[in-house]
Amino acid sequence: MRCYGDYHTHSQYSHGKGNIEENIQAALARGLKELAITDHGPGSWNFIRLGVRSASELLVIKREIKALQQKYPGIKLYSGVEANIINREGELDVPEEILADLDIVAAGFHLLIYPPDFSSFQDIILKNRFIYKWFPGKRKEIRKENTEILIKAVKRYKIDFITHPGYGIDIDTYKLAEACAERGTLLEINARHVEELRAFIEAAARTEVKFIINSDAHGAEEVGNFEKALELVEKLALPWERIVNIVK
Ligand SMILES: [Zn+2]
Ligand SMILES: [Zn+2]
């Protein structure tokens, strides 16, 4: 069992260490046939360069990828984004016209973002970073709200996959997976955070949803490193047909 493509990797345009060409060379060295660059959206904490500087920078990255595609015809390259969910309406930090221009739209629930207004700060950051920890009685309600926010995003946008579902925030992955299955959105099995996400993947596996395995590489050496994700797939006895980028 092996994966032929990695659809979630970062470059220096966001939180990654390497440049795009280094990711491509690493993917080729690992024998991958497809690679996507999905840097974090502009809503991320940018004083530590977590995300792209602006949504339009995603189009600059796209042009760079297009030029590199000429140089590396042996691998299919995709330009994308790992967009942030920024409020309770499930809004993303990248406008729809830019999303439409990208090959791959991934979306994730991250807490290191600039909330655009106070209610967004309350609904995304305050609840998950503080209230969830300090008030156990509130956890059930927060889990429900987080799940609803993600489902709203899945219904509102054409999202290819949800990155690391359940990482850093509590959600009902079964419910999310049902909504994703209906919309044709994939759930990610993220090789970087396999252990923390095991229970979430297990719950999602009970639905009809399909999965995608990605490295979430933040450096070229991690591109195409799916080992831990493949181990989990085996442990859970998840049929390989449920994972879109696996070949037997
Ligand atoms: Zn992420
Ligand atoms: Zn990522």
Total tally of structural domains: 1
| Ligands, ions, cofactors | zinc ion
How can the largest sheet be summarized?
A: 7 strands, parallel
Task: Please identify the top-level CATH class.
Answer: Alpha Beta
What is the fourth-level CATH superfamily? Metal-dependent hydrolases
Strand order of the largest sheet: 2-3-4-5-6-7-8
CATH architecture: Alpha-Beta Barrel
Helix/sheet category: alpha/beta
Gist of the model:
With 248 residues, this protein is of the alpha/beta class.
SSE diagram, text form:
Blueprint: E1 2-3, E2 5-6, H1 20-29, E3 34-40, H2 57-71, E4 76-84, H3 96-99, E5 104-108, H4 118-134, H5 139-156, E6 161-162, H6 173-183, E7 186-190, H7 194-205, E8 211-214, H8 227-235, E9 246-247
Parallel strand pairs: 2-3, 3-4, 4-5, 5-6, 6-7, 7-8
Antiparallel strand pairs: 1-9
Helix pairs in contact: 5-6, 6-7
What does the model show?
- This protein has 8 helices and 9 strands.
- Strand 4, helix 3 and strand 5 form a beta-alpha-beta unit.
- The protein is globular, with a radius of gyration of 17 Å.
- Helix 6 crosses helix 7.
- It has one domain: Metal-dependent hydrolases (TIM Barrel, Alpha-Beta Barrel), CATH 3.20.20.140.
- The protein is an alpha/beta fold.
- Helix content is 39%, strand content 15%.
- A 7-stranded parallel sheet has the order 2-3-4-5-6-7-8.
- Bound molecules: zinc ion (2 copies).
- One zinc ion (ZN) binds next to loops.
- One zinc ion binds next to loops.
